[in-house]
Write a structure and sequence with these properties.
By secondary structure, the protein is mostly helical. It has 3 helices and 2 strands, in the order H-H-H-E-E. Strands 1-2 form a two-stranded antiparallel sheet.
Length: 163
C-alpha cells in the first residue's frame, strides 16, 4: 500500500471513532435494567437473610441454595470451610444438612470417605440466597417433587413391567 492510502484509512477510522464517541456521550434515554437512572446510586438490598426451613427447588436436580452468607468462608485447593458443618462426620453435631452420597463418589463411581475432588468447590453448583428482584422474567414454574406427577405414583411400574 502506498502512503496516501494508509493516511486516508487512518483519517477515516479516526473520524468514525470520534463521531461514535460523540454520539455515545449525547445518548439521553439510557436506563439500567432495574429502572433507575444511570447516574443514581441505589441502596443495596439485604443480601443474605437466614432462612427458616428449606427453600423449594424450581426444577428436578437443582442444587439446593445456600441459606446463609458464605462471604468469609475459605474455599481453595486445601480448605473447604463448608465441610466443617456439612461433611458427614460433622453434620449431625452441627444440625446441618449432610451432603448427598454423590459428593463422595469419584469420577469412576468409587465410594470414598472424603468429598470427591470433582465436588470440592461447592459454589460451582450451590449459590447463596440473594434477596434481589429478577432482572428478566422466568417462564419456568416450580416442579412437583420427584415421584409425584398429576396424582400418579411414578414409583409403581405399569402391569407387566419389571424393575
Amino acid at each position: 500500500m502506498n502512503f496516501p492510502a494508509i493516511a486516508g484509512i487512518s483519517a477515516l477510522a479516526t473520524s468514525l471513532l470520534l463521531g461514535g464517541l460523540a454520539v455515545a456521550q449525547n445518548a439521553t434515554n439510557l436506563q439500567s435494567l432495574r429502572g433507575a437512572d444511570i447516574q443514581s446510586t441505589l441502596p443495596a438490598d439485604e443480601f443474605h437473610q437466614q432462612m427458616k426451613g428449606r427453600e423449594g427447588r424450581n426444577y428436578r436436580q437443582q442444587p439446593p441454595i445456600v441459606p446463609h452468607s458464605i462471604e468469609q468462608y475459605q474455599m481453595d485447593l486445601r480448605t473447604n470451610q463448608c465441610l466443617s458443618c456439612h461433611d458427614w462426620t460433622n453434620a449431625g453435631d452441627r444440625g446441618a444438612p449432610t451432603l448427598s452420597m454423590t459428593h463422595y463418589l469419584d469420577r469412576n463411581g468409587t465410594e470414598m470417605d472424603t468429598v470427591a475432588g470433582t465436588r470440592w468447590f461447592c459454589n460451582q453448583c450451590h449459590v447463596p440466597q440473594a434477596n434481589t428482584p429478577a432482572l428478566v422474567g422466568n417462564p419456568r414454574r416450580r416442579q412437583p417433587p420427584a415421584g409425584h406427577r398429576r396424582g400418579h405414583d411414578l414409583h409403581r411400574l405399569p402391569p407387566g413391567h419389571r424393575a
